[in-house]
């Protein structure tokens, strides 16, 4: 007969040995939200260290973003745990897609060498997703739904502006090509 196992809860975050004071502080916190895996990950990925002389905090995400592709993949993989926690919390599909878009945007920004790491410092997709998750878990789902609606409306406006820019650009280049062909034909005396 197997030996009895200690009482462990599913998905319980066990405090690490006193290797990292931030992890120990989060694990010892009385606030259950601070002990959640999602909170610890967001802290490590987005706000681990404060840049000296500023109030800007960085985490492992912008540091890993210095290695395009590989670093972003690792950071996004860790950020997926926040998305899994959101699914467990029962967030709506639009909110989950918004969280996924945050992660995707951070991943794509991180692929830009150098600038991706800088963008990662300020975008902080994991902290954004954690805020959405905590607001949802606190029972303010209507507030999250409204902000998500505004988010999608902003994306729609941005997509419309990009599409308009592309259409106007193509029209301009078509006009420019047509004018160049007309000038060449006129110069050759064919017109």
TrEMBL record:
<keyword id="KW-1133">Transmembrane helix</keyword>
<keyword id="KW-0472">Membrane</keyword>
<feature type="transmembrane region" description="Helical">
    <location>
        <begin position="104"/>
        <end position="123"/>
    </location>
</feature>
<feature type="transmembrane region" description="Helical">
    <location>
        <begin position="151"/>
        <end position="178"/>
    </location>
</feature>
<feature type="transmembrane region" description="Helical">
    <location>
        <begin position="63"/>
        <end position="84"/>
    </location>
</feature>
<dbReference type="Pfam" id="PF13430">
    <property type="entry name" value="DUF4112"/>
</dbReference>
<protein>
    <recommendedName>
        <fullName>DUF4112 domain-containing protein</fullName>
    </recommendedName>
</protein>
<keyword id="KW-0812">Transmembrane</keyword>
<dbReference type="InterPro" id="IPR025187">
    <property type="entry name" value="DUF4112"/>
</dbReference>
